[in-house]
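Need fresh eyes. Consider my entry:
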Amino acid sequence: MTIGRHGKITAEQARKLAIAALGETVSPKVAAPRVTTGPILLTGLAVCATCNGGMTLRTGTSKTGGVHRYYTCSTCARKGKTVCKGRSIPMAKLDTLVTTHMNERLFQPERLATILSSLSSRRSEKADSVNARVTTLQREVTDADDKLKRLYRLIEDGMTEMDGVLKDRLNSLKADRDRTKAALERAKSHSSQAIQIDPALLERFGRTMRENLTSVAAGRPFLVVPAAVRSLAADHVVVGWKDTREARRAVQDALPFFHEAKRVTIVEICEKDQIGTARHHADDVVSYLARHRIKAEARIEAQLLGSTGADQIIGLAVDEGADLLVSGAHGHSRLNEWIFGGMTRDLLTSSPICCLMSH
């Protein structure tokens, strides 16, 4: 996606940029994104039409004191107009065009129905395979039971004696039957019901997701309440901490909850070689809260192999009986978070407790 002269952008250009954001040009499974973090929505996606340099954030102040934000050519900003004349476009204008088009592409009932139809087909194929496996295992369990019954009948009728060989045979058959039953239970647990596509549910889901994407982009704190939660006491608040602007904003926004809480825990999940730095950052947060007469404790944990930071924070919060989780939203580019995944999306979709997030 390129930004043309005078920062003009057409609907077709916005469409192409949204497609790039959706990963339809280069699959993230094949090639990792060049840029995954940044303070602006279209980090690593928008480029200058003149030099193909990335577009970066530039601010300006009007005569009335208002602050304006623009996407501007980073090459021009770094090397001057002799290399590139530079192009700029108001950030709000481009962000709105792209997010609007993404909403239209992603969360319309027709597209959601297509996605679910594809998922239903794959699930149906998997179900056929699982059902065949279940049938085979049920037959094996029945055969093992029949063999055991025949042996028991021979013993009861006095046609054979319980010697060492027969005892070993009985134990072997029992072990085979038990293993087959366990495999049968596992196979049954993997079976899934067919997806019922309800047009009304699709419409409601699409509308909710469109509102969520818009509200998250608005820079306001928002509280996510899981369906199973009936009330929020906020007695124990866990902060999922990273030394980012978003996390600092979240701590600031959560101060009213901290004042009412009985316990506040600052948690950071990091690599083993970063534990010292992470502890220093978490202690700074504890000191900051102490100045607000809020007692907090810091807890640093190394990220487990095969686990995400969100999984560990959620697990810790649940184990400790926390009822509110505070976190910064979208430390990565917001489009990357929503489409390709990240801490924010994992918390939104997986947390069984309330989450207060800020951007």
